[in-house]
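STRUCTURE:
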C-alpha cells in the first residue's frame, strides 16, 4: 500500500499485517494521494474494474478511469466524483455520494455502463493533514438493471438485499458522521467561548480583573464545567482563593484565604507546581477527607487543578470542577494547560506592571517635584503683570522639558523665557533644569541683548556637555524712547526655533511676532542669532507659549497658530489670569504634550507716568534721560 504502514504492534498481540487485511477485504477500495494519483487498490477493486494493479499505480485516477460523456452528464461524472474526493481531502471528513453512474473502459475501446455507491474517506496523518483519500466503490449496476427490467424476481431479490445492505451501511456511516459533526459543533462552540475568555484574560490590568474573568467570564461554560476557582499568593504561606458561585460552599463557605499546605487540589498544584487530575468521585474521595466534604457540599465529583507559573515562578493555581466522572481527552488537557499558561503570563504581566508603576510613580514624583520647584511664580515688577501656567501631558509621564522663567537682570531689565527641551520624561526634566539654570546665570550676569545671551548659552551648553536640544524665546522689557514718562516700553527678543509670541494690543488687534526663527539650542553655537524689537505701549499684552498649546494630531503648526490667534482675539481683553485659564480651558483636557504659558501685560499708572526703573515719576515731573 505505497508508504502506508505494513503493520502495527499492540501490547500482547502479534504484529498485524494490515496490507494483507487490505488485500483480503471483500469490498472494493481504491487508495489515492492528496493530488488524486492512484497509490493502491485491493483485489476486490481490481476484480470489479477488470484492471491490473500495474495498470493503475502512479496514474491520475481520471486518466486511468476517464469519464464517458452522455446526454445527462457531458463529462461522464468526473466533476462530481472529483468534488467528492476534494471535499474529503480538504475537510478531513468522509463524503458520501448518491448513486452515481460512471462507465469504465471495457478493454475494446468502448465503455461498460456501471452504477456505483461511492464513499470518499480521508486518511489523516499524525499532524492532522490528509495523507490519502480512500474510496469505497460498491458496484450496484446489477441491482439498478434488475429494477429497470422488472424481470427475474430471484435476481431482483438478490440485488434488493445487496442494496439494502449498502443502504444500511450508508445509514450507519451517516449516523456516525452526524454524531461526529455534532461533537465538532460542541467543541467549536467551546473553543469560541474559551477564545473569548482568553482575550479577556489578555486585557486584564489587575489581579482582581483577571480573577473575575476566570471565575465569572464564562470559563466554566466554555469547558462544560460545574465551577472553577483561582488561587493567588496572599503571602509566602497563604493563598487568596476566589471561586464561582457553584463552589462557594467549599473551603469554609466561600472566598477566603487558605494555607498553602491545605489539602485541596488548588493548594497542591500551587505548592508543588504539579498538575492534579481527579477523574471521578472515587479519586476525589481518595484525595482526602476535606475534598470529600467539599464534593458532598458542592456536587463536584471530578477536578483538575493546574499550577500557574512562569519561568519557574509560581503564581498560584487554577481549579476546574465537573459534576459526574470526566474523561479528559488529550486535546482538552492541552487546552487547559495552555489556558493556565496564559493566566500565569497575565499574572506575571500584571505583577511586573504594578512594580513598574510603583517605581515609575516614585521617579515621576521626584522629577515632578524638581520641575515644580523650577517653575516658580514669576516676579511682579511695578509696570508689568506676569502670569504663568503649566499643564503636563495627559499621560503617566507627568514631567517633561517645557519651562517658563521670569527674573530681573543686573541692569534692571525684566527677562522672560519660554522653552522646550526635547523629550517627555525625567531625563528631559533634568536637561531642562540644566538649560534653565545656565540661562539664568548667563542672562543675569551679562548686559547683552537676547540674541547675544542665547549665543552665550549655546556655547556654555557645549562646553559643559549639556547634550540636549532645546527651543526657546528669550525676551527683555526695557524702557522705550523718550519721553520715559509716556509709559512705553520696548520688547526685545530672540527666537531659537520656538513658536512665535503673540502681541495683543489695547484695541484687541492680535499680531504674530513672527520672524525667521534661529537655529535650535544645542546644534551649532557658532551660528549667528538675531534680535527683534517691538514697542510695548501701556495696556498691551504679550503671550509666550510652548508647542503643546497649538499642536493637534493631523494638523499643521500654522493651523495651530491660526487657532490660537482667533482664540486670543476673542478673549484678549480679559484679565490676564482669566485669559490664560480660558485658553487652557479651550483644550478641553485633550493635552497631548506639556503646555507652558507665560503672559505679560503693561499696566498704565493712574497718571500714565513711569520712572526708568519701573517706578512712578516724582511729583516734580519726568526726569531727563
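SEQUENCE:
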Amino acid at each position: 500500500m505505497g508508504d502506508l504502514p505494513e503493520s502495527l504492534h499492540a501490547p500482547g498481540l502479534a504484529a498485524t499485517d494490515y496490507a494483507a487485511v487490505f488485500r483480503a477485504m471483500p469490498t472494493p477500495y481504491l487508495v489515492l494521494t492528496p493530488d488524486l494519483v492512484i497509490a493502491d487498490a485491493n483485489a476486490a477493486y481490481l476484480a470489479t474494474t477488470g484492471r491490473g494493479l500495474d495498470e493503475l499505480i502512479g496514474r491520475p485516477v481520471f486518466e486511468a478511469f476517464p469519464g464517458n460523456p452522455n446526454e445527462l452528464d457531458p463529462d461522464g461524472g468526473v466533476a462530481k466524483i472529483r468534488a467528492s474526493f476534494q471535499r474529503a481531502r480538504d475537510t478531513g471528513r468522509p463524503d458520501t455520494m448518491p448513486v452515481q453512474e460512471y462507465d469504465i473502459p471495457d478493454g475494446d475501446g468502448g465503455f461498460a455502463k456501471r452504477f456505483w455507491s461511492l464513499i470518499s474517506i480521508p486518511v489523516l496523518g499524525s499532524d492532522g493533514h490528509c495523507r490519502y483519500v480512500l474510496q469505497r466503490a460498491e458496484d450496484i449496476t446489477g441491482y439498478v438493471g434488475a429494477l429497470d427490467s422488472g424481470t427475474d424476481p430471484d435476481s431482483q431479490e438478490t440485488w434488493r438485499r445487496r442494496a439494502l445492505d449498502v443502504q444500511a451501511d450508508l445509514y450507519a456511516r451517516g449516523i456516525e458522521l452526524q454524531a461526529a459533526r455534532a461533537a465538532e459543533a460542541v467543541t467549536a462552540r467551546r473553543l469560541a467561548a474559551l477564545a473569548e475568555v482568553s482575550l479577556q484574560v489578555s486585557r486584564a490590568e489587575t489581579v482582581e480583573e483577571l480573577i473575575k474573568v476566570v471565575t465569572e467570564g464564562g470559563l466554566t461554560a466554555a469547558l462544560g464545567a460545574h465551577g472553577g476557582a483561582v488561587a493567588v499568593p496572599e503571602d509566602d504561606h497563604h493563598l487568596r482563593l476566589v471561586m464561582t458561585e457553584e463552589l462557594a460552599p467549599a473551603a469554609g463557605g466561600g472566598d477566603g484565604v487558605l494555607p498553602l499546605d491545605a489539602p485541596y487540589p488548588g493548594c497542591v498544584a500551587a505548592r508543588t507546581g504539579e498538575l492534579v487530575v481527579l477523574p471521578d468521585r472515587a479519586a476525589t474521595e481518595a484525595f482526602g477527607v476535606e475534598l470529600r466534604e467539599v464534593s458532598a457540599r458542592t456536587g463536584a465529583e471530578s477536578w483538575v487543578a493546574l499550577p500557574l507559573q512562569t519561568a519557574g515562578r509560581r503564581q498560584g493555581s487554577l481549579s476546574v470542577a465537573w459534576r459526574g466522572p470526566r474523561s479528559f481527552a488529550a486535546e482538552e488537557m492541552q487546552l487547559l494547560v495552555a489556558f493556565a499558561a496564559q493566566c500565569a503570563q497575565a499574572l506575571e504581566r500584571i505583577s511586573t506592571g504594578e512594580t513598574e508603576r510603583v517605581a515609575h510613580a516614585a521617579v515621576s514624583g521626584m522629577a515632578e517635584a524638581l520641575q515644580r520647584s523650577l517653575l516658580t511664580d514669576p516676579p511682579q515688577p511695578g509696570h508689568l503683570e506676569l502670569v504663568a501656567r503649566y499643564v503636563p501631558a495627559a499621560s503617566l509621564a507627568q514631567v517633561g522639558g517645557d519651562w517658563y522663567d521670569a527674573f530681573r537682570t543686573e541692569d534692571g531689565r525684566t527677562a522672560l523665557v519660554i522653552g522646550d527641551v526635547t523629550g517627555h520624561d525625567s531625563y528631559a526634566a533634568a536637561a531642562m533644569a540644566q538649560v534653565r539654570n545656565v540661562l539664568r546665570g548667563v542672562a543675569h550676569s551679562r548686559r547683552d541683548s537676547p540674541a547675544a545671551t542665547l549665543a552665550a548659552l549655546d556655547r556654555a551648553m557645549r562646553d559643559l556637555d549639556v547634550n540636549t536640544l532645546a527651543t526657546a524665546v528669550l525676551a527683555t522689557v526695557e524702557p522705550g524712547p523718550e519721553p520715559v514718562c509716556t509709559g512705553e516700553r520696548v520688547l526685545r527678543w530672540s527666537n531659537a526655533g520656538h513658536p512665535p509670541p503673540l502681541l495683543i494690543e489695547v484695541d484687541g488687534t492680535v499680531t504674530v511676532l513672527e520672524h525667521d526663527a534661529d537655529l535650535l539650542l544645542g546644534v551649532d553655537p557658532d551660528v549667528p542669532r538675531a534680535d527683534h524689537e517691538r514697542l510695548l505701549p501701556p495696556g498691551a499684552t504679550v503671550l509666550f507659549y510652548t508647542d503643546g498649546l497649538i499642536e493637534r494630531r493631523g494638523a499643521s503648526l500654522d493651523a495651530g497658530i491660526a487657532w490660537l490667534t482667533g482664540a486670543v482675539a476673542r478673549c484678549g481683553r480679559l484679565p490676564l489670569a482669566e485669559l490664560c485659564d480660558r485658553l487652557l480651558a479651550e483644550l478641553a483636557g485633550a493635552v497631548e504634550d506639556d503646555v507652558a504659558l507665560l503672559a505679560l501685560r503693561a499696566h498704565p499708572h493712574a497718571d500714565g507716568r513711569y520712572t526708568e526703573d519701573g517706578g512712578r515719576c516724582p511729583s516734580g515731573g519726568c526726569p531727563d534721560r
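REMARK: The chain has three domains: 24-139, 204-354, 375-602.
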